[in-house]
UniProtKB/TrEMBL annotation:
Name of the protein in question: RING finger protein 121 isoform X2
Any GO MF annotation of the entry: ubiquitin protein ligase activity
Transmembrane segments: 54-72, 79-95, 101-120, 141-163, 175-192, 302-324
Major localization listed first in the record, in broad terms: membrane
């Protein structure tokens, strides 16, 4: 250890040569980390001006990119959402294959196969009557699984930070890897399913005819029909239909409770499917145990920016630094 400390305090080219001559095989993991840390400092010594320039480029790129993304989202929300969804779906796949994360790849393939089938059903015309409920059931299932997985992963990380993993004789690095992996799985698939669900909800609602992005429905909504699934709300025993609880919004339009919850939670809609009056989510989810689902959904919407666009922005910054000769 003394030799390592002596090497760390070396300065200039002489110190860097001494660091290169250190035999890493004879050092403990902690000592190896210290040497690598010292090598990094020796390599970047005297480059303070260049580092400041790189930081300014990073900040400027983040600000400009954010402004452009906000304008794109406001002016062309459909293309923005489609491109974001595509990046959310494909970007992690690149890193998965590159880093050989085969477990993630298998889960990604299974999720993509089922989601592709559900999306195919949701975009067919004419729309089969059972399709809306199939879509919301699938994405609600993924939403709940991702929510539970994220909570378990977060708890595992916190338990590791407090040292509770030692009670079960689990190594800190293993417990932390387990928690971070579950947290990543939960958040990633939670974001992905909400984007797919929103796209399917728009397609289905437009096909049914009680909802349109322009704000003018193509059909008149009867009091006995649910605008989300297009089926009868109240049915006789001899009739074919769905028997379940109903929910009346503040605009007095009535829907199947499952449908309107799927529309708001899974489909990311906060307006009435017919008249587009804003939905009071606090009133709809009066049970305090249900409100975390709303907050979790808002968290996922924030994380989608990090997953989809952050790698692109960082890559753009790296390209600018390369063009300017900053390394």
């Amino acid at each position: 250890m003394a030799a390592v400390v002596e090497v760390e305090v070396g300065a200039g080219a002489a110190g860097e040569r001494e660091l290169d001559e250190v035999d890493m095989s004879d050092l403990s993991p902690e000592e190896q980390w210290r040497v690598e840390h010292a090598r990094m400092h020796a390599k970047h010594r005297g480059h303070e001006a260049m580092h400041a320039e790189m930081v300014l480029i990073l900040i400027a790129t983040l600000v400009v990119a954010q402004l452009l993304l906000v304008q794109w989202k406001q002016r062309h929300p459909r293309s923005y959402n489609m491109v974001t969804l595509f990046q959310m779906w494909v970007v992690p796949l690149y890193f998965t294959v590159k880093l050989h994360w085969w477990r993630f790849l298998v889960i990604w393939i299974l999720f993509s196969a089922v989601t592709a089938f559900v999306t195919f059903r949701a975009t067919r015309k004419p729309l089969v009557q059972t399709t809306p409920r199939l879509v919301y059931k699938w994405f609600l299932l993924i939403y709940k699984i991702s929510y539970a997985t994220g909570i378990i992963g977060y708890m595992a990380v916190m338990f590791t930070l407090f040292g509770l993993n030692l009670l079960f004789k689990i190594k800190p690095e293993d417990a932390m890897d387990f928690g971070i992996s579950l947290l990543f799985y939960g958040l990633y698939y939670g974001v992905l399913e909400r984007d797919f669900a929103e796209m399917c909800a728009d397609y289905m609602a437009s096909t049914i005819g009680f909802y349109s992005e322009s704000g003018m429905p193509t059909k008149h909504l009867s009091d006995s029909v649910c605008a989300v699934c297009g089926q009868q709300i109240f049915v006789d025993v001899s009739e074919e239909g769905i028997i379940e609880n109903t929910y009346r919004l503040s605009c007095n339009h009535v829907f199947h409770e499952f449908c309107i919850r799927g529309w708001c939670i899974v489909g990311k809609k906060q307006t009435c499917p017919y008249c587009k009056e804003k939905v009071d989510l606090k009133r709809m989810f009066s049970n305090p145990w249900e409100r975390p689902h709303v907050m979790y959904g808002q968290l996922l919407d924030w994380l989608r920016y990090l997953v989809a666009w952050q790698p692109v922005i960082i890559g753009l910054v790296q390209g600018i630094n390369y063009i300017l000769g900053l390394e």
